[in-house]
Design a protein that fits this description.
Elements: H1 12-33, E1 37-41, E2 44-45, E3 54-57, E4 64-70, E5 75-79, E6 88-94, E7 101-109, E8 116-126, E9 134-137, E10 146-149, E11 151-153, E12 159-164, E13 169-174, E14 183-186, E15 189-194, E16 196-202, E17 207-211, E18 220-228, E19 236-247, E20 258-268, E21 274-279, H2 280-283, E22 301-302, E23 307-313, E24 316-321, E25 326-331, E26 337-342, E27 351-353, E28 364-368, E29 374-378, E30 388-395, E31 400-407, E32 420-423, E33 429-432, E34 438-442, E35 448-454, E36 459-460, E37 464-466, H3 473-483
Length: 486
């Protein structure tokens, strides 16, 4: 099965080649780059390092930034297209508005030659005043090149951000609402859901389409999922929330008149036409709400399912339902449930194998890898245990789900909601730890190689990793420059 914006679009040989070229570039610059020092006032983020290509600067009300260069012998530097100079010098740029950038180009002596050759090109961009803040830890070598995040929840910020594996924001867009689930849908196209209609844009910010309900059932677009298929036509899949009722839920511990929030999957053609739909309420009784979430049923408006991810699995869909504490697989052709893992047992339920917990708690982000294994972010909500990323081998003949991998992080002792766990084909995991304000990349042995800590009281619903070579840095920069021309 082809994936949308992650690593499986790139063969391992290409990933290794990209990594090798990056290493050779670093070696070529090692002699002079380690001695070159660039600072700015206001300061750069991240701090200058010759391996880091992109930076932001938070300019004050005077719209002015001063760049200080300290270059070693044999190295000359150009700032914002100005003449190359060596040794120590400073350049002040005025009227740099939010989003605009300037380049710093470094030339040094070529090996065995007297002429100078371009060694490195840096991009510095002014961040908006309300742009999110974060800190970075990089104790190892990440296997993702970029991460797509939206650190907005609880902070009501409008930003979609592509950051590199040094934590530097390379691309961003201010959404018209509060974006929730941004991701690359294809090279140079990013889509996301909002608390309102979702949107898809090119890197220059141009609106390509909005995601709206396609059926005539009413309701509104749910922000939890956006999926582009690669099965024939490149249809889109998202969730529509529809209130149904009133119903008498007293037999389930509820009220005599309650409205039930139904989660309806809609598969929509690029022209906006409805292709296929599936209603949770039509196929799953309210009685399957996990007992640990039954307290939710005691109100007038109830959310017994809480669908939060939809994943293509061949001709079927794998779905995560938070308030069932379960994952199900739906046959697209018939709408039947083929299997269920976790939650209240039913005929199609699979048996856990090698899993100490034998349950989920507020699960999110169910994904199917190319080898057919299932990954999932298990928050441990209502279970009194830490969140974890899990991976299972599914055997539909034996009706088993065998745990083959589990990831935890001591820095994430609990998680109440949201979250994502993405297994990279090169071995590492990228984990957004639920409602915690940080995401990490972990090696298979659990060692942390990268961490971003959001410091504005916000967190990102998911953290979507992007493969080396999937999107070109210069394309990201050009897209930003077209959004914010000088």
């Amino acid at each position: 099965m082809k994936r949308r914006s992650d690593y499986s679009r790139l063969p391992l040989t290409k990933l290794l080649l990209v990594g090798l070229l990056t290493l050779l570039s670093a070696v070529a610059f090692a002699d002079t780059g380690a001695k070159l020092n660039i600072t700015t006032s206001p300061g750069l983020f991240p701090e200058f390092n010759h391996d880091i290509n992109d930076y932001i600067v938070r300019v004050g009300a005077d719209d002015k930034v001063t760049i200080n260069v300290d270059a070693p012998s044999g190295v000359t530097v150009s700032v914002d297209g100005k003449p190359f100079a060596g040794q120590q010098f400073a350049v002040t740029l005025k009227k740099l508005t939010p989003g605009q950038s300037f380049k710093i180009v470094v030339y040094s002596k070529g090996a065995g030659r007297n002429k100078l050759v371009e060694t490195k090109k840096y991009c510095v961009r002014r961040a908006p005043s309300d742009f999110p803040n974060w800190t970075i830890e990089r104790p190892g070598t990440p296997q993702a090149e970029y991460y797509v995040v939206a650190p907005n929840l609880f902070a009501n910020k409008p930003w979609v951000i592509v950051a590199d594996n040094y934590g530097a924001p390379v691309w961003w867009y201010r959404s018209k609402s509060v974006p929730v689930d941004p991701k690359f849908l294809a090279k140079n196209r990013i889509g996301w859901m909002n608390f309102g209609p979702g949107e898809e844009r090119s890197l220059d910010g141009k609106l390509l389409r909005e995601y709206l309900p396609a059926g005539n059932i009413g309701g509104y677009v749910d922000p939890h999922e956006l999926l582009q298929l690669h099965r024939g036509a490149d249809n889109y899949v998202y969730i529509i929330a529809v209130w149904r009722g009133p119903f008498d839920l007293r037999q389930y511990g509820g009220l005599d008149k309650s409205y039930v929030l139904d989660n309806v999957i809609e598969e929509v053609a690029p022209n906006g036409a409805l292709v296929w739909s599936w209603s949770t309420y039509d196929h799953i009784k309210v009685a399957e709400t996990d007992p640990t979430w039954s307290f939710l049923l005691g109100s007038t408006n109830v959310d017994p399912y809480h669908m939060n991810s939809v994943e293509q699995s061949g001709d079927n869909y794998v779905i995560s339902l938070r308030h069932l504490n379960a994952v199900i697989c739906v046959e697209r052709k018939t709408g039947n449930i083929l299997w269920k893992l976790g939650g209240t047992p039913r005929t199609e339920s699979l048996k856990y194998v090698n899993d100490t917990y034998n349950n989920f708690g507020g699960n999110h982000d169910a994904r199917i890898l190319p080898d057919g294994t299932l990954t999932l972010h298990d928050n441990g909500t209502t279970q009194g245990r830490p969140p974890r990323g899990v991976r299972y081998s599914i055997d539909t003949v034996a009706h088993t789900a065998t745990l083959i991998e589990q990831m935890t992080d001591a820095s994430a002792p609990e998680s109440g909601f949201t979250g994502s766990s993405r297994k990279l084909p090169t071995g590492n995991w990228v984990m957004q730890w639920g409602g915690n304000p940080y995401f990490t990349e972990l090696a298979p042995n659990g060692d942390r190689v990268f961490r971003v800590n959001f410091t504005d009281g916000a967190f990102s619903y998911r953290a979507s990793p992007v493969a080396y070579g999937y999107v070109d840095r210069e394309d990201l920069r050009r897209g930003m420059d077209r959004q914010f021309p000088r």
